[in-house]
Fold these 3 entries.
Entry 1:
Amino acid sequence: MACSQFEYVKQYETDDRMLPGCWIVLRLDGKGFTKFCELHCFEKPNDVRALCLMDAAAQAVMREFQDIRLAFGESDEYSFVFPRECQLYGRRCSKLVSLVASCFTASYVRLWPQHLPDTPLAATPLFDARAVLYPSDRALRDYLSWRQADTHINNLYNTCFWALVKSGKTNTEAHTQLQGTLADYKNELLFSQFGLNYNALPERFRKGSVILRQRVKHVKQTADGRSKEKERLEPCVLHCDIIRDHFWQQHAELLA
Amino acid sequence: MACSQFEYVKQYETDDRMLPGCWIVLRLDGKGFTKFCELHCFEKPNDVRALCLMDAAAQAVMREFQDIRLAFGESDEYSFVFPRECQLYGRRCSKLVSLVASCFTASYVRLWPQHLPDTPLAATPLFDARAVLYPSDRALRDYLSWRQADTHINNLYNTCFWALVKSGKTNTEAHTQLQGTLADYKNELLFSQFGLNYNALPERFRKGSVILRQRVKHVKQTADGRSKEKERLEPCVLHCDIIRDHFWQQHAELLA
Amino acid sequence: MACSQFEYVKQYETDDRMLPGCWIVLRLDGKGFTKFCELHCFEKPNDVRALCLMDAAAQAVMREFQDIRLAFGESDEYSFVFPRECQLYGRRCSKLVSLVASCFTASYVRLWPQHLPDTPLAATPLFDARAVLYPSDRALRDYLSWRQADTHINNLYNTCFWALVKSGKTNTEAHTQLQGTLADYKNELLFSQFGLNYNALPERFRKGSVILRQRVKHVKQTADGRSKEKERLEPCVLHCDIIRDHFWQQHAELLA
Amino acid sequence: MACSQFEYVKQYETDDRMLPGCWIVLRLDGKGFTKFCELHCFEKPNDVRALCLMDAAAQAVMREFQDIRLAFGESDEYSFVFPRECQLYGRRCSKLVSLVASCFTASYVRLWPQHLPDTPLAATPLFDARAVLYPSDRALRDYLSWRQADTHINNLYNTCFWALVKSGKTNTEAHTQLQGTLADYKNELLFSQFGLNYNALPERFRKGSVILRQRVKHVKQTADGRSKEKERLEPCVLHCDIIRDHFWQQHAELLA
């Protein structure tokens, strides 16, 4: 029962290393989350507990993979940005895609009880992942802008949709009323009919979550029992605009 | 904040559909499991609870992805076989690789307390995954034979190694004694020095785990309260030789 | 001016080796041949000189690349079949695609004066090439059947089209008359209106060209001046059905 | 004999579009040119007729493919640079690789009699091609610098080697004498032993050929018979340094 006669099958493995010198964006996306949300009675349009759990799982991923430069999340998706010069696993696509999906999902399950203590996990959450390469800083920023613009558009729609449904409309009626309408109409609808100022809603809902590594002070016990304040880099969650230049000027190290 | 000006970034996504007409093997592998095993004090050379947890996670994957024809697992790795004609997610590599890694890891974490009730999960288990295509039945069988031969070789070595270590040798001494020795020497060592007949060890350790879908009887309650026996296909774990023809003759449907 | 500081750019080269164990089909296709044919006043619907030149260029490719098992050509395209176990250039796609395109085009230009002695070559003929993998014999045969069925369909249409045009119709009228018609209609049209029995047309036009390596006798001069008959394998052009089993039974070595 | 039952084989064709936003470098390389040079008695170390033929073939390629921004050639190789935003054939790798190889080879054969009028073409010249992507301007420039530094190193070596061989040494002796020596040694050898000032050799040999599109005046006949001077862009061959910044400052449009 020697291995050697069968080892030729390794030749069928293909090299999937990604082009050097490009930003690697790894986007995770929940599979079948509409059903998953219903099963666990997530609040509509946004369940803050579920969003915080997503953020916490993403932070766990960033602690595991120190190469990740920043992350952006909304709803049931998260994008992780690896730098141009990243050599993790030789930039092999399957390695990165599977490990990040594995780490995110495991963290999601492990951290669930902290974030939804009263809701037992009743199904296996699944996330797919894909890797996309961006050769220029402009393309990377436009990718992130695309996701944040999407957050805004979806959230405005969903806020209107669920306001209408909670006010007694059917899903179909709500959908029909909103179809093809512009942002102004939706803002006005929320304000005049539901007394909601859209821009006063939490930034988390309107802008999604950005995770950066920032210096955080923490207290460390020294050998002789005294406590000492130290600093370390920790992945921190922000809810701010990443489309305009301001953010990138403030965090110039991200594209450096 | 329209999406449209940024949507061009979708053009950077590449098509990673895998060649039709080939068997797809998706192999998962634990990341850093040496450390993970030590952290949770897994028994050496084989922890039957941990192996059963691997099998249970693999069964969960097979329940989620009905396309999977069979699976083979050993130690901290598992291979899943998708049939030639499989069209799941258009055969997109990243989708399959990430979802199977996600499902396996989530199941591993969820099922942990059932299999290791007295050992709290103290770290995030991670599994990477890769997809390999095999154009012929012969190549697929040789792949599975390769993994099972590997199971045997590793297990014989580990059984000797840990017997020596438990008898008082250091890791280095045990390794040195075994280096370059043949199977006969190791079998004889186990028998003469430790009274162990290697072939009498559990097949799970020597042959790994095969998972097939088999007809299983189950009792179903009918509407009027009577119970009725029904059959359904369930992923069942076997520990048997898959290198010789016998297995493939008995389960001719696997390659059909 | 040392090379070493720039050599890192080699890391950007990607590995494009094709999956082992599959048939490799390399299909060449003339670029802009409608215009090229007009420029050189090729006869319509088939110019036997131009078709023979295609065949001769394909034979030159088969003499250069001994791995090629067989070839099939029609009109301005040619497909070359490399066997499953082929290791030429490590199965690197770009190498095979470019070299076959290069060899075919160079041969086409070099052999032109032999086949069209009265027509000076007035433009550069261009051929693109692509590689496609077929994991099973069935898929390979179906590929070749697809090309031969295409030959038949195009030739029947073109024969009708040019008969109508030569009889005085405009291109548009001819096209309109034929659009959506079945084979029976076209056969009847040729017979009743132009006295042409389609099945009596040269097989080269109706079935395309197959190139196989066959034993050919040739006379060799020995050292003492006598001539001696020897045999060698030469790429030979046939015009026969390759869709039905008969051809493959007669040439069982092709798929062996 | 319908096509439809066989058309499924098209599904085996894979999408090989190259990542947008990157420079595409297509490098052609002569196959077996050592033998090809001997067969045609090319002058050593450089045959100016053969180098001019390479340049002319590359110019023909640039006339055919207007997307090509610039080209660099030396010895039996040529690199063609397509811009980041190039959409030719949807950036499909096989299309570009095969068509450029086809066009270059055809042009080489067609233009041969003009450049080597007394030497009949006695074998089929073959060129392979590969595509490499460069995400940044820096990487593209470093690629071109790598090729030009290679030109210099090879030419200095070859100039010494053939001087030694022509002076009576065997190939092996010449090779042994040069092995591991630095540029200074080789310059000194040429000067002291052969009276050759390396830097006075033609720039074509020392720096290779760069092809750019430049405005060229040409005379056009107007409808009424008068001649009128016009300008058009023509691929022009230069022999100059492309490693230092000067060239790129002078031709800022190349990277714009």
Note: The interface with chain B takes residues 19-22, 84, 133-136, 139 of chain C (CB under 8 Å).
Entry 2:
Amino acid sequence: MARPTLASLAAELGVSRQTISNVINSPDRVKPATLERVRAAIEAAGYRPSAAARQLRTRRSMNLGMRLMPATDGINGSILDRFLHALTESAQDAGYRLTLFCADSHEDEVLQYGELLNVAGIDAFILTSSSRNDVRTKWLQDNGTPFAVFGRPWETAPGDDAARHPWVDIDGAAGTAEAVTMLTAQGHTHIAFLGWQDGGPVGEDRQAGWERAMRALGAGQDISRLRASAPDTISGGISGGRELIARGATAIVCASDSLAIGAAESLRELRPELFSPGQPAGPGVRAAVVGFDDTPVAAALGLSSVAQPVEDAARHIVRLLTFELADRAGGSSAPEQHLLLAPHVVERVPLPLAPPR
Amino acid sequence: MARPTLASLAAELGVSRQTISNVINSPDRVKPATLERVRAAIEAAGYRPSAAARQLRTRRSMNLGMRLMPATDGINGSILDRFLHALTESAQDAGYRLTLFCADSHEDEVLQYGELLNVAGIDAFILTSSSRNDVRTKWLQDNGTPFAVFGRPWETAPGDDAARHPWVDIDGAAGTAEAVTMLTAQGHTHIAFLGWQDGGPVGEDRQAGWERAMRALGAGQDISRLRASAPDTISGGISGGRELIARGATAIVCASDSLAIGAAESLRELRPELFSPGQPAGPGVRAAVVGFDDTPVAAALGLSSVAQPVEDAARHIVRLLTFELADRAGGSSAPEQHLLLAPHVVERVPLPLAPPR
């Protein structure tokens, strides 16, 4: 049986749809006799006031929209899945749901915004994977749609319009700099950086942190020699690692865990003595490789890695959007519009090791 | 500036809200002069017919709802994240979005259904992690809400009502049985099973496949000796693996990749000769451990694992729901209401190995 609708119920009772809407949303406007009659009919018919009726009243669907990025090899993509979990939980705590959609590119994402706003009734968007001259932020700003970005606007010109929207990001450079500090404390002096071939601004940021730390150590002259790039895969990490070890590196900071898994393999292959259990303390006693994102794979392999506080980022994104959607009301103070969170290095002892008995 | 609403626009133009709705949705019911006047005003005001107005007309929000299970250690949870990606893409291809929510338990999930149907306007639900006497399926059936489950109804009584709803699952027992076959082909005869301490029906199913294959090999008398269980963690796998190796196992089929990572470590520790590169072919040349779910961690470690076709499952779930939501219309034939998909074993050579040059 078809569900009763506002229209079918109105026809049956001989009242207007507005009357039924008033019974549900503004009962004080309805005469007591009518109120009672319509309420009884609503109950008898099992009519369910639709989200639509509520939306007409509140103008809010309580739905935040986010594009789900394509599944990856499962190593580097896991950070965005963690972000998604944290975002869904934070949104729910604030009374919002998260609606997902797919797109092939930033341009395709923009093409879908209109339908998402008009048909799916999205209140605001969360953007990930920000890029230079991001077409998405421009469209949303022009359209007056509330949104917040997980990722900095990677603009070069200060004061650029794009930089004025709310964003949260994690300070990748601070993470790679901390990795250099940790390796220095282990006794390493020839610390290399293995980045992405097509790094983009995120990769450049991670490399910049390593460079800054190397200069601070007085190793500025080693920078061009101890820097390499590779495709973002385990085999990319193996070949990049070999290259850097051949140039004298004893430790490698990597732009991702995929690269770090490969780089650790190349160290295992070319410097197997670094991996013997029971070896005396000193340079190389640890794996001497640091990855990025602290993925489950890094944890399982015992690889050190830079951990991003994505849960904090998700919570702040929800704070930004709920403030905006509440029309900046209630006199509460605005959350920080641009927030750069600090990551930290998780230091691990690599496999294979005899596990504790 | 506040967005113009149906009400503000109606007041400004001196027409009813129904007239504006008709201009948008049923222009043939509106007098041409009025049509033109309202259309011009809509354009000038930048009024956006809300999703609400469309929903009142179509009675469909085109939103499917799914509870996002809590993030886990990132090893075993990754299978549900893969399912989520595939489901979002399949839903989008069919014109639907996926709306996520959180719940603490199946009971809490049920408590949220009402609000999700009434406020968020969800058309249908996708359930994961089915359990025995699942309270969720009973509620949804009683309420007449369309839904489909990723997971079998684990009922013992055949013909039970719960078994009548649509579901898709993956035949775990077939996967562990195939793992035994693969290890037998490698020359193993003492093949153990390491399961979950609190296995539930999914764990029991995986164990049943191993038992069936062992009996088929004439090794039925080994079953009680070569079976152990442990908490679903890497350290659980290490201790469970040690126990089984001490009882004579040379190969271990595991209920998860977490357990398999640990079991492989225990083999590495107690039977290091199995891991030397260049060893002649024969029993144990491979890691002799098979995990479950084919996670990124298993791939990175070179662990064999049972791969679940979750993308196929997601596509079929969308097929089931879109057929149901289209009111079984168009004379198209119904998709299979209960579908059990076959997994397959991905065979790998374990790390550490000298990678190919």
Note: Chain A has a mean pLDDT of 84.
Entry 3:
Amino acid sequence: MSLPSLQQQFQVSFSYPVHFTEGLFEVSNPLLRDVLAQDGGRAPRKVFFALDSGVAEQHPHLTSQIVRYVEAHADVLQLSGPVALIPGGEQCKNQPALVQQLLEAVDAHHIDRHSYLAAIGGGAVLDMVGYAASVAHRGVRHLRIPTTVLSQNDSGIGVKNSVNAFGKKNFLGNFAPPYAVFNDFAFLRTLEDRDWRGGIAEALKVSLIKDAAFFRFMQAHAAALAARELPLMQQLIHRCAELHLEHIAGGDAFEQGSSRPLDFGHWSAHKLEQLSHYRIRHGEAVAIGIALDSVYSHLQGRLTVAELAEIIAVLETLGFELYAPEMVEHLTDAGHPQSLLHGLQEFREHLGGQLTIMLLDGIGTGVEVHEIDDKLMVEAVHQLQRYSRGVRPSAPL
Amino acid sequence: MSLPSLQQQFQVSFSYPVHFTEGLFEVSNPLLRDVLAQDGGRAPRKVFFALDSGVAEQHPHLTSQIVRYVEAHADVLQLSGPVALIPGGEQCKNQPALVQQLLEAVDAHHIDRHSYLAAIGGGAVLDMVGYAASVAHRGVRHLRIPTTVLSQNDSGIGVKNSVNAFGKKNFLGNFAPPYAVFNDFAFLRTLEDRDWRGGIAEALKVSLIKDAAFFRFMQAHAAALAARELPLMQQLIHRCAELHLEHIAGGDAFEQGSSRPLDFGHWSAHKLEQLSHYRIRHGEAVAIGIALDSVYSHLQGRLTVAELAEIIAVLETLGFELYAPEMVEHLTDAGHPQSLLHGLQEFREHLGGQLTIMLLDGIGTGVEVHEIDDKLMVEAVHQLQRYSRGVRPSAPL
């Protein structure tokens, strides 16, 4: 008997808001309460909070503030167990035990698909908690409350969750949109300079490949941004978040096809984080990655020396390093797992299929290429090394 | 500064074929080769095979057949490492080490998002391998080759992946459609009677709530189905698969809202599997669950005694048990974790929100209710107990 094939075909709609506020857990701020009150459920909603330990250190009253907030809005909200502290930073994504602890909490506190697992913290904690939320009961509702520039304008507002495994960044993960995102600018005031600055790298990245006007905004205000002028940073975060959301919605949100994430500068950034054992933080690594692929774009004749000099100047005014010593170890041996160039292969494998690297055809215009000339990339690394010693971009000798 | 909220909104399209064939790995069968050749990639595609040990025992030449098939189609296919044997049956979903082993294989053999992780086996192996495939690199392509009636007509063709945790079925999982499904009827010939029969329970389930004509088909052929007439089984699987695919596509495929999976008879089935330490297999448990909720529907006046008798008769002709001794232990103590009635609470928690149980308003018509009368359910259990002693459905005394 021959039976016809069946073709399954369907669409799934996803939507979530990204809110901007200051003082999310002040009892008088109705935002969180209102968003959950509109979920169509019956009160009170169970919420389990996972809090980045780094944030808790900077905000020692936050846990009691959360408890007070929930108590004050007991008609809508209910705590599911005590606020859990999660060790912050990329290292939390290397600890399977933390995911397991969150899953145990989901089990112990009977958090179901209509309950909420809220994460407050930097991108790493959001990634890790989001991963646990996405696989528990095939997905409990995930609230993201990003506390860093990087997570507020990029990683925290997207659809990806992940943890590291086998020494590889984001080896495990999936696509699972959050229920809602709350960007609370109050958290930015207490950031270390490194983390304040780090998040700007993702804004630079997206401006360089998509929006020259946004690059000019950052160029004009680079010194003020470095001096931590909060209103400028708020504008930067809002615009950067908007560009990232548009990219996700306009393309192939779950990266099923050949559509790419906004990953300019990222192949080397991922590798540098790993090579430096995460001494170099993600935003810092992205800044170096941007510098590297800008130099490479210039060496390929895609970017003028003036444009390259502008990019390098903005990075430096913001206070970024342009180079790290790990970049030259085993550099010319692309097959060596400790070589920066090995990152190209890992990058290809992680996304699958053909190698695709974003370069610049001028400021504001990204272009995808499928081949990288190792020798030219080595030359680009050496050029960055010279910049780090004070040499400035100039026409080739 | 007050900045407007951003609303993210997008749709993701999913599609995959469900093919029907016999002898998928016969070198002369072009199906598998052709499907992968059309993936838009460049040859050869890496495929890693995970094979249910139970299937391997019944088909001792399968591994070498797979190797020969891949070699014969080397322009399109390439093996990524040796065929991995996975201990079959529900127990494989209780072993986190198996997921870990698959992830290690993904890492070791450089299986990327454009490579394939193929699972050959019963529903449990497909669920487990599918889960690993869905989280590795945020999703490598998953080929499902279901070998049982149950997986060919239900679990293997849908969008769910899962493993068990904390003693709870499917506690971990997600929604991730397969790349393609291949139903190979040749595997059905070697099934144990229990597994041949077990899969019919899901067909009965979907017919009772959706399609009276399909129920009449099974009623007319119950004896022939029990006698293992393969062409009838092929028709049953095709129609059942079609109904399941329609339900997924027509509703809320990722169960984000209040839309429900086709889970008639399943709240008690899940609990019975657990209470019997998986001695009772899923299809067998579903048959009991169908009987139980049919009796309950009758006791509520939704189903006539004649309709109930027809359902019970079909289940018996097919060879199903209607009752298991685990059903009466701690029965009246719904708070006891070993009580069948505790399954109602677990079922609610797993899906979240309000309790929703499917009952029957006549054959072919499901109806959702949000409350279960414990006393009436206890009475339904006792009635099944009496049926198992030879008493037949009749009007209440």
Note: The CA atoms of residues 226 and 319 of chain B lie 7 Å apart.
